[in-house]
Amino acid sequence: ELRAPLATVSAAAQSLDMILSDGGEAVGNRLARIHRSVSRMTELMDQLLNQDRLGEQAWMPRGEQTDLAELARDVVASMKPDTAHALILQADGPLPVFCDRPLTSVVVRNLIHNAIKYSPANQPVRIETGHGRAGDAPMAWVAVTDRGPGIGEEEQARIFEPHFRRAAHRETQGMGIGLYLARRICQNQGGSLTMQSQVGVGTRFVVTLPSGAPAA
After folding, report:
1. Where would I find the H helices in the chain?
2. How, if at all, do strands 137-146 and 125-134 pair?
3. pTM to 2 decimals?
């Protein structure tokens, strides 16, 4: 059910490549965006719906040791061609983290997408990584900061509720489940998703995850 419509889009784009082979740079750029989106969706389905995961909940994390800085670089590189916003990345590695790489990539991508969606086109989105501690446990973090309108205090308390839609942006496409699922994914990996925001200044979301595997 998921692959069939995606295959149709891919085949139609390939046909347009041939029909519009001399359509110019603007047409070529739009077709390239379609191909990248199809590749991204195919990759995501392969990661989350492969045979090893079919017997369990697709959104339950499966931890592995990876590099959070590299993960952030990969996500930003995949998004840059399709946004007019400047994505400014600070991700010095290696930055060890124990997480489900595909699901964590979904979280980071969602946060960047939200920052783009709510920011003026002439304002950059900043993505930073670093390390810290939670008690005695070493942690790694990735932060996404925008210079959008910010979120009022009364809405900050509800921003992670399922299906919550901010009053000022209910016309923006979406079901209101992204931040709720993102926080659940982080919490299920022994981490957190937090937010700081100021009206008229912008918003910063921070994903924090353990640097090493949990004790047996």
Report:
1. 3-19, 25-48, 68-79, 101-118, 153-156, 178-187
2. antiparallel
3. 0.77
